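Q: Convert this sequence to structure tokens.
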Amino acid sequence: MNSAESLDLLKIKSQIRAELLVNMAAPVIFDTIDSTNNWALDQCRDTVILPKICFAERQLAGRGRKNRDWYSPRAQNIYMSIAYKFDVKPDQLYGLSMVMGVCIVRVLGKLGVKAGLKWPNDVYVGVGKIAGILIETRVKQDAGMCAVIGVGLNYDMAKTSSVLIENQWTDLLKEIKDDRTVDRSVLAGMLLNEILTVCDQFASIGFDGFRNEWQEYDLCIGRRLDIFEGGRVIEGEYIGINEHGALMVIVDGRQETFYAADVSIRMK
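A:
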């Protein structure tokens, strides 16, 4: 499958369960956009019925966590954002980004690619990052929260120079084994179907309902970490996550807890 082939809405919708299609508007596909998350944030207005979904072939100002640039070449990868309404309080959305990581690992597993998760939500295959997630939220005046779920997944980066991306990366076509192929539009539909399904579940059971599965994919187990928080670097021994998805680390003989909004980590 040529990655330069444009996304196909019918192929995307073919992967969505019928009961989900009934309650959503058709996804929008942009050739070029500043950021799919920016578009989705605009959909969080009180009068808009959610969920609303968009894909883009290219982003001019794609971004990841901590406002880092997300390299977004045309028609090579998946750039997707979903505006989804949760009838919960803001603190009940903690861990949503980690659960979205579980969604991506599940989909990759269906394609024969074994992936893992680096806290809080980076998706890796081997030593290469294959996907990332950015969650942004808005409070709706009619109660509840609008969460924008942004996903970037590398599909075919064969023509990408490594100097353009700071960290090690990989892509789906490189990692698929044997003669298996996957259409980029079908992949987009599989991801969307999994995410929408899990959003319904998350609204009921929160992160703790996914905690055991997240730990199955945890790449930090048994590792020492450098933890970057507010300009300082803390070294500690990783011991797991709590029921909210917060990082638990032994630092100088004491257990400390860190939340994703405040820190980033580097595995040793």
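Residues 184-205 form the longest helix (22 residues).
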